[in-house]
Specification:
mainly beta, 15-stranded parallel β-sheet, 8-stranded parallel β-sheet, 23 strands, globular
Length: about 280
């Protein structure tokens, strides 16, 4: 493999499937699963991927990329979630990966084959912390990822709390859901990122673009997937949040929505150096 596994000097014996690689990844170790740049995976039986815990903040488990160039490897997950972290996680890094609900992209499928099936909580990255505060959810890093065309591209759901999450240099775009009538209460709310009970979240140098709606000019389906007041580029609640140097573009409604349903649920938030374009 050479001194840098991300740039091997010669041929390597790669695993044939994602599942085969992840069967070797150990829970609680700093094991890396690297996908070759320029390749794509779309076998529905392989999704969602369940990522193992890492060893520490300095030695996380990693899903990343190897090879020449800067093209990200692509997970084409169709109508499946891309990655799942459920009932607790610690020290997980995802870097340089494209996660793509390709069957929901009319530019990929063509309008005639666009899959409009409704799938509950369809997400590129789905984080579920359980129904109580028992599981430990600590140290998730998303770096240089492209996540697009899910109902909500990144979801933190369940009780949490979710501590020390970093999302940096990512493109999060084109999430959309379905509403029975445009402008009415949607059957599927849709966000670029949604999460509650987030603590120590850093969003830095990301682009959140066109989340919460789909544009289909002169198409009756537009009434079901168009912009509503309920959908946003980000919709979060928590403490010690920092949003720095991001682009928040063309949201269905707001670039950022901050919400608190309890006293003190939303506190110590810093928003600086961001650019907001369009939206309500």
């Amino acid at each position: 493999m050479g001194s840098d596994p991300r740039d091997p000097p010669g041929p390597i014996a790669a695993f044939a499937t994602l599942r085969g690689a992840y069967q070797q990844a150990r829970r609680g170790f700093s094991d890396w699963v690297l996908l070759r740049r320029g390749d794509a995976w779309e076998d529905p039986s392989e999704f969602p991927l369940h990522l193992p815990d890492g060893q520490s903040a300095a030695a996380p488990s990693l899903l990343g990329a190897y090879g020449k160039g800067c093209t990200r490897p692509v997970l084409r997950t169709g109508l499946s979630r891309g990655l799942e972290l459920v009932h607790g996680y610690k020290f997980v890094a995802i870097a340089g990966i494209e996660i793509y609900a390709h069957e929901r992209d009319p530019a990929y499928t063509g309008r005639a084959k666009l899959n409009t099936s409704q799938v509950q909580d369809l997400a590129g990255v789905y984080v579920y912390g359980g129904n109580d505060a028992g599981p430990v959810n600590l140290g998730l890093l998303l770096d240089d990822c492209f996540i697009h065309f899910y109902q909500t591209n990144i979801i933190f759901t369940g009780a949490g709390p979710y501590n020390d999450t970093v999302i940096r240099r990512c493109v999060i775009s084109d999430a959309y859901g379905f509403a029975p009538t445009a402008g009415k209460e949607p059957a599927e709310r849709s966000q670029g990122m949604f999460g509650g009970n987030l603590h120590g979240l850093l969003l830095e140098d990301n682009t959140f673009d066109h989340n919460g709606w789909l544009e289909l000019p002169n198409d009756p389906l537009t009434r079901a997937v168009g912009a509503t007041m309920f959908n946003h580029n980000t919709y979060v609640e928590g403490s010690e949040l920092t949003f720095r140097n991001n682009f928040f573009l063309r949201a269905s409604s707001g670039g950022n929505k901050f919400r608190s349903d309890t006293t003190g649920g939303m506190r110590n938030t810093r928003v600086e150096g961001n650019l907001y374009v369009e939206g309500e």
